[in-house]
Amino acid sequence: MQEQAFRFGRARHLVGIAGLPSPATPETVGVIVLNAGLVHRIGPFRLHVEMTRRLNAYGYPTLRFDLSTIGDSASSGESQTRKQQICADVGDAMNLLGEQAACKRFVLIGLCSGSQSAHMVACSDAKVAGAVFLDGYAYRTLGYHLRYYLPRMLDVKRWLGVLSRRHQATGNGEPTFTVAPLPQAVVRADFAGMLDRGLKLCLIYSGGISRYFNHARQFRECFGRVVSHPGVFTRFLKEADHTYILTGDRNRLLDSVERWLFDNFPVTTGGSP
Amino acid sequence: MNTRADADMPFYFGPDRTLFGLFHACGTPARKAVLLCPPLGQDLIRCHRLYRQLAQALAAEGVAALRFDYYGTGDSAGNSVDMDWQRCLADTAAAANELRTRSGIDRVFAFGARLGGSIALASAAQARFAGVVAWDPVLDGRAYVTRLDAMQSALCLDGQRFMVPRNAADAAAQWLGFAISDSFRQQVMDLHVDRPTVPTLLLDSLSSDAPQPWGSFVADAAAVKCVQPATPWNDPRRLEVAILSHPLIQAVTRHVQEAA
Question: In angstroms, rounded to a whole number, what is the distance separating the alpha carbons of residues B102 and B64?
C-alpha cells in the first residue's frame, strides 16, 4: 500500500498524508492523527508515521495532517477562534478521508495539545466514534501530592541536596507557552457527555507528565466514576517519557492503541487484526 | 484564500513513488531552482519550519524550491532503521531531477543543514548541482557519532524526561528518538566529504568556543560566512525545540540571488 499526499480543506490550505488500505468498508472507522504541539504531521520522533502505517497494515484508513498554520498547512484566511479553526480543520480531514476511504465514523488520536484538539472536536462532532487521548487533561489531586511529597519528606539525602542548592538559580529564564487547561469539572462533564453519545475513549498517560500526574489511580482521582464506564480504557505508562523517545516505549504505546482499536472498532473486512 | 499555499504542492515521486516532496513554485517563471536537502534524525524535525520559511522566501524571489524526505525519514516510505547513506545520495539526485522537471530549470543549487549539508556536498556531482550552500555541515563523522552516542547515553539519566532512570539497553541502537542500523552508524562514522568541486558557501553558526573544522575543507576563506546567533544543535535541553533563524534565511536567499 502506498500513502498519498493531499492538499485539501475549505481553502485548500491543509496538507496531509492518507494511508488507504483496500478493501475499505464504510463500517471501518477512519483514524485521524492530530499535531502534537508544533511538530509537523510526522509526530515526535516520527511517532505518527509509525502509528498510521501499523494501523494501515491492519486495514484502518488513516490520515495524519497539519492543522491550520502548523507544519505545511497555511491559514484558511477566515476570521475564527482557534477552537473554530480546529473543529473546521478536523471536519475537512474527516470529509477527505470519507471521500477517499468511504468511512463514515472516525477515531481521533492526539498527544498533548493534540489531545486537547481531539477533545474539542469529540465534544461536538457526531462523526467522531472514539478518541485516544495521549497525555491529555490531568489535574494534581490529593493522591498526587501525597505520592509526590511523602517520599521526598522522608528522604534525608534529598533534604541535604535541597539545602546545598538553595541559592542556585533554577530555570533558564526563557518564556514558555502553554494552553490553559479546561477546568476539571468541565472535562469530567465533557467525558460523561461523550460516553452518553456512545463514544469510546482511550486515555494513555506517560511518566513524562509527572509534574501533575504520577499514578494510574489518578485517572479516577481526576475524573471520578467516568473512568469505570465500560466505554473508557485507561493506561499509565510510567516508564515512558512524554514524547516516547525510546523505540521500545513507542512500540508499547502503539501496541496499546492497536489493541484498543481492535477491541472497540474491529475491521470488518480486509486487513488481519 | 491563500494563493501562495495553493502553489505548494505535496506529492510522492522517485523509485516506486516512495519519496515525499513538496514543490514551491513561483508566481512568475522560475529563474533559478534550489533543492533543500533536509538533515537527518531529530534535526529534520527541528528544522522543518525553517526549511518551509526558506522555501517560501526563495519562491517569493522567483526561485523554485523543492523540499523532500529521504527514504526512511519524514513522510517518505521506509522505517527509520532503513536509513542508508548511499540511498540518501541517490534520493538527492532523484529529487534534483524532479525539481528540474517541475521547474523547467536545469541549473539547480542545493542547500542543506548539518547532515543535509554533508549529503548536498557528497552528492554534488551525482545530482549535477550548480552550487551548494551548506549550513554547519558534518565533516567529521567519527566526532559526530561520538557526540550522538554521548547524548543518547545521557538521555537515559535525564530526570526531566523520565520518572525513573532507564537502562542502557533501552536506548541501544538509537540516536535521539530514531532507530539506526549498524551499517548506517558505520557509514556516518566513515563519513568523509571531499573538497567541493562546485561553488560552495559554508554558513557557520557553530558556537564560537567550538573548534571550527572548515579550515582544511575550504581553500577560499571567502566561502565561509558566519551566521549569528550560534545554533544550539547539541544542547540536550533543546532537543525538541524548533531551530529558527531569519539571518540564515536572508543569507541563503541573498547568496542564491547573487549566484551567477
Answer: 9
For residue A171, is it within any domain?
no
A with B: how many residue pairs have Cβ under 8 Å apart?
108
- Taking alpha carbons only, the member of A143, A133, A236, A261 closest to residue A190 is A133
Q: A-chain residues within 8 Å CB-CB of B12? A: 2-5
In tens, the pLDDT along A60-86 reads: 999 999 999 999 999 999 999 999 999
Is there a domain that residue B146 lies in?
no
Chain centroid to CA A20? 21
**C-alpha span between A91 and A106 (Å, rounded):** 10
Cα–Cα distance measured from residue A52 to residue B52, given in angstroms and rounded to the nearest whole number: 24
Query: Which of B13, B54, B163, B167 to mutate to test binding with chain A, by most A CBs within 10 Å of its CB?
Result: B163
B205-214 pLDDT, tens digit each:
997 666 666 7
Question: Among partner residues B22, B74, B174, which is closest to A42 by beta-carbon distance?
Answer: B74
Number of structural domains chain B divides into: 1
pTM of the predicted model as reported, rounded to 2 decimal places: 0.94
Domain that holds residue B45: 3-140+192-258
CB of B246 within 8 Å of any CB in chain A? no
**Cross-chain Cβ contact B162/A49 below 8 Å:** no
Number of domains chain A contains: 1
In a domain, B99, yes or no: yes
